[in-house]
Amino acid sequence: MKYLYVVCCLLMVALCSACYQDKDTLFTSTKIVIDAGDTLKIKKMQASVTFTNLNTNEQVVATTLQKNEVETTLLQGLYKIYGQGTAQVINQNGKERIVRFRVTKDNLPLTVGENSVVKLQMFFVP
Q: Which one of 75, 83, 92, 100 counts the least CB within 10 Å of its CB?
């Protein structure tokens, strides 16, 4: 009877350890950098970026105030990125203006150690 109890305990330990998934292998940290180009400098920005996992259709929304960067942690996978917002920009002559913009990227694979920083060019919306 004691032998059966030991065998059952060892079997339970083996089954529980086989189901363990390390969090680091499932998730990846990603930084999106929104770029205004060579002629404009971003002074302030308010943006919302939506990450849509094309495998699971799950959406994660990240926002930023002040900086031109958005950081988040996502499941590894293939993503569509869409963002929009407003920015206060300064042109080469030093003139400030407020613009509305969008950014987009389709079929972006996000995995651990790869594509941790993604640079997206903003395009202006009237």
A: 92
